[in-house]
Structures
1.
Amino acid sequence: MRGLFKRLAGRVAQGYRGMSIQLVLSLSFTAVALAGILLLGGSLLLRFSDSMQAMAQESTQRVLAQVNRNLDSYLRRMMRVSDTVYYRIIKKTDATHRSMTEDMGLLYEENRDVLVSIAVFNEGGALEAAAPLSSAKRSAFPNESPWFRQALDKMENLHFSTPHIQELFDDPDDRYRWVVSLSRHVQLTRAGSTESGVLLVDMSFAGIAQVCRNVEQPNGGYIYLIDRDGEIIYHPRQQLIYAGLLEENNLAAAGYSDGSHRERFQGQSREVTVKTVGYTGWKLVGVVPNPWLWGQSDSLLLFGVSILLFSAFLMAFLNFRVSAYISDPILRLDQAVKELEAGREAVEIEESGCYELRRLSRSIASMVSTMRHLMDDIIQQEAQKRRSELEVLQSQINPHFLYNTLDSVIWMTESGRYQESIQMVTSLARLFRIALSRGKRIIPLADELEHARHYLNIQQIRYKNKFDAAVSAGPDTGGLYTLKLTIQPLLENAIYHGITGSEEDGLITVDARREGDDLIIDVSDNGVGMRPEVAATLLSEQRPELHTTGSGIGVRNVHQRIRLTFGEPYGLTIFSEPDEGTTIRLRLPALNLEQAGRYQQEGAP
Amino acid sequence: MKHKRNTVIQLIILILLGGAVIVTMLLPQLPSHRDAAPLVEISVILREADSSLWLNARLGMEQAAGELGAELRVLTLAQANDGADQLAVLRREIGQQSNALVVVPADPPELSRALAEQEAVCPIVSMESPLEGASLTVSPDNAALGGALAEAVLARDAAGFILLLNASPDSTGVAARVDGARAVLERAGAPVRERTVSLTASSDALRDLLKQPDLSAVMAFEPALTEQAAALKQSLGLDVPLYGVGVSANAAAWLEQGVISAAGAWSDFAAGYLAVEGAVNLARGDSYHTEPLPFFIVRGEELYEPEYQKLLFPVG
């Protein structure tokens, strides 16, 4: 049993864990509501049943009281007849001188609707007088009858018998009539002296049956009449009981006191109400099958069940709606969190539902926002850091370049080529000045081009005019700004990888122009070039870091700096064919002074 | 997925509850709940020309009919024990769509044969005699009744033979009583003569039988013959003891007067009630079973015993 309970509890817990909050809410609400409805319904049912029972009892008691009054009136009428016979006829008549038959006949005629016979017997059982028949059967022995013996045994009382067949007189009209006998002891006067006798008034059983018959009782109930020993006097199905086809709980009822009792008889629960009929000791018994609803009315029960079920339906429907109202915001929040977990960025966290849930949604939204800002900050910081690193790398002058340049200056000075050495030193100075640019990252395009020009001057002197160079700018590029030191690394790349390996006269061109909102700078050489697939890999992140022999600043670093500063749409594009040369195109935003200033501030440490 | 499952569960619960509401609201409107059990028409076909001997049984039948919702039609024959007439009446009642029949068969074998040929026969309850084809038989144990009556005859020590009278030679129930009595008497070594008489013919034949010399006792095995023999005995002032079957009001008076020495009896009210109760139940398609009716042998001096009063005389 305990194991079974544990297994059941385990299953419920498992089921609970697998349920959604809405199902848990709706089912638990519904279960509680159903329990409440059942409790309420059961309570109402019991109350109703009690009320019905009380009403049935009250009704039965009312009916019994009415029947009792009628029966009492009937019996008192018989007793009055008996008294009249005794006190007005027997007591005033001396049997020696006058017969009582005539007077008794008159009295009988007055009450013939309820009487069968009136008879007086002497102590030995011989008939003294009778009406309406005056001769007894030869086979009749009244002194052996119970009513006769009771009258002589208890002289002070009137005795009512149970129903029996009238056996004293031979009545050709109705030979076997059911009667109830009222007998009493009387004093007969004969020749002036008194002797004991018995007065018998036989009343028609039909009269008693008439009083008790046709009494309506609820729920198929009925009443019956028993004597003090439980012997049935009247029962609506009396003949069935006599024939042994039906049983009644009359012997038990004889022991009941007046009032209502509940008994179980032949598997049926029933309310039994008892009322004692005055003087006789008889008991009127009202029987009503237990007025529990099932017995009361199927329709009423079904109506009650229908109301209960409809209430349950309504409650279940409302519970489902209410639980959906409560749980839907939770489900939406859960869905939003799942989407966030999946990495979706544009997730809207809806603030709906009850106060706590709205607070929770707000907190989660705030937390997500904070996380996003933190992540943005981290990304920005990382980009800044990377940019700074690249810019630091970029700002470093290759010592070889500086040494070679200064060595060239020394050599030219020693050889008396002062004008060229001055030009070289001047270009180097300008190169450094522009490279520094007071620490600015964004400089005018003109300065950048000038920086390229000076760099080319120095390299042309060093390489003894092995190549020609041309720097040009479109007319619409005036006033534009660009990221510092973006052209020089490309020129360095063109010289070291393009021109130096070429046997032809080299040509390096730098051309700046504007395309819409973009600034395009093409750095081209007619050097050895490379295969397009190799050119395509030069800017790849997966390619190892480029280290040039020039200024030491790689082409990829320029590309990364541009992208880190201006974003993905910008950067380098390399066009190259073997033996035809290479063009590296820089795409930058066309910045005016104001925009340049903004980028300057963003890039400030 | 889970949301869909929840919706399905909720829908199922709502549909079940809604369905239950509709069912409980519609149920009282159904004809089977609204109407009481339909009235059952029952025809009671006796084997006598008048039903006076069945007074108490009719009271029982009417009580059962009233309680169980049946309509009774009690039919007698133009001539007592006319099997052909009874068969014609029975066929007519079947044709008139009686829901069940209660028959006191005049000629059970012939009736059984006719019923076997009849199509669409309603439930039939037989009284007094077993009937092949009948769904139920309501009667005392006839052979035992005859035997018990014979025991009562043997209780008197008298010389002469015992005359067994039978007015319904075709009735197997009556024949069983005769057989039962004869068996007991013969076993006891009592001389027995058996005669068949007609209830419709003049009483001369019966008078001659009752006036036979050396007649020690007369036994009649059916109520009508018992009454006829008693009346004749009383009118002729005969002393031969008469034993009969059935206690009608007349028979009770003769018992009381000693004209009938003893009578085999049972509760006619109970027989009538059980027959109609069985017929109604069978007509409604229910099963029904009853035991043989208890019987007793009553003498004149016992007539007013309370138990006999209750059984023999209808209350009211």
Note: The two ends of chain B are 79 Å apart (CA to CA).
2.
Amino acid sequence: MKIKKIALALAFSPRMQAMMAEAARWAKMYQAKLYLVHVGEKSEEAEEKISQLLQSAQWSANDTTVLWRKGDPTDNILQVCKQEQIDLLIAGALKKENLVQYYLGTPARKILRKASCSVLMLVNPEVDAIPIKNVVVNAEDSPYITEAIRTACEISIKQKANWLHVVREVKMLGLTLASLDDCTEEEYDQQRNSLMQAEIENVEKMLSGIAHEGLRINIKLLSGKSGFELSQFAQKKKAELLVVGASPRRLFFFDRVFPHDLEYIFQDLPCNLLVVHSRARKEATHG
Amino acid sequence: MARLAHADVIQLLVQLGIMLLIGRFFAELIRKLGQPTVIGEILAGILLGPTFLGTINPEWFQLIFPTTGASGLVLSGIVQMSVVMLLFIAGLEVDLHIVLQQGKQAVLTSLTGITIPFAIGFIFPYYFPEFFGIAPGMDQLVFALFMGTAMGITALPVIVRILMDLNLFRTRMGMLVVASAMVDDIIGWMIFSVILGMIGKGSDMPLWNTILLTTGFAVFMLSIGRIVLNKSLPWINKKMAWPGGVLALSLGFCFLAAGFTEYIGIHAIFGAFIMGVALGDSKHFSERAKEIVHQFINNIFAPLFFVSIGLRVNFVSNFDLVLTLIIILIAFAGKIIGSGLGTKLGGFTWQESLAAGFGMNARGAMEIILGLIAFENGLINEKVFVSLVIMALFTSMTSGPLMKWSLARTWKT
């Protein structure tokens, strides 16, 4: 994922200093230009606050563009991302929302569902850098799978992570139905093992084209509802970052009523979440 | 609680033992030939039933499987329970997750895949009801609607098995075919429930009322019911013994839902099916739990059901070659054209679409269950039932080889 422009959706909240510090770290890591998007009145007081935030994050105001917008926060932030061709949008979110908020959709979740660029949703922003020990990446089939794994490898190498866990779903439904009283115990074990082996080989094949020298990689196969199991695994591993590919189609209200894949993760964010959206691929698709 | 007489208990236990043993023996024989075990179980029933044993030695047949008496009644109850459980696992197999992943495409493919076979299956029996063996006094429209539904239904386990064999299960086409088969199943069983309501056995409910109740129950179970189940499962998993807790409770919920739908005038199978869909969709209902429920029902209750098919009807005296051939022809034409077109609309090549059409053509156990319920409700006669069973077996046997053939063949363009 090429990141040249990073935008931070900035709200004057108690977490703003931590959000600014995180954004500055990501911008430094990718040597990217930083955009601060604030939806609200432009005033001297607000400008002063932003200036203080930049100072506390030790980030030069010259390398920063501040964009002021009025109106609906979600629409304005997404519009800025399109206009400025932002590669990565950073925003803050609650780990879990109540039922009404979830179904109606808060700005943070709306951004996750609608953004056309990559999004880093921070649930645990920190003023001081916390070392990333465990990164989990979703290797489920999607148009963004290679990009997601590549990004996870890059970040893990740059952050000197202890482990990169590459998680892929095994469709046990297929095995259960395919082997229904039609094979012996030995044949069932063989089928199960070959299914597992095939999925591991699929992941290894994906990894072979991506630079990951020196990185400790754990390939994990999970069965069940893919997004939910992935989220559970990230929590179990106490991962600091979960990397997933964006949804290949727009998510609607219906997807919240019958959650699947990413919606399971959006329901209850297990840790900081990076949704990878490859601009290059999108442009190619749209001709 | 009323008790069975000593002789009835012995008779019932002998019946169950023979059905399971002979059923398994033939299932294993057929398995060695690389065919679905359901064929062996039905063959076992044909041998034990009026077709073979009842013809060569009627006394023995009456001794083991008497048509009257308490043991026969209890066996009939066990078979009825097996049907309910089979529909429950058919519901568990419906993975809404896969359907939603495929999105609009799955709905489009499945709608084409069910509408065209339904239309073809409806038109011929509607205009030639006598030829298709409409039961006396049966409404022509209801009969034609049933035949349409019978042509539209698919056998998900057979399709999945074929896709796994061909290494296509995880491909885009494989997932689309599986998702479409799942949507077809939901629509098919809903239509069938409405048809059963139209026959009006045991209730005088108007049609609109049946439709409203069927859709209302499905919507309720897949929304509020599903949420309640999803919230209660973590507690069940945490507090109750594994796998006893989840196994007993899931079957308990299944029977309650089946009883409820039977009570409100739509067939018990629909309640069991929708409960299966709602429960199977929960993120807390693990794959392992699904597997246990599957194994338990598929290896004990499914054989009892399939063997019982042969016990009911004489497959020789009720075999009508022309009718069977025409039903097979309609089944092939409807599904291959319908599902093939649906897949083509999904952006696949004609070759892949034809292969998907062959795959979706498998009717399997679901068709047999559908046929049996229609037969029991007086919707079809013995001849149509026999033809439907043969069609279900024939389509299941041929769908894999035909799919393989169509994918391997080089088509001239």
Note: Residues 100 and 106 of chain A are 10 Å apart (CA to CA).
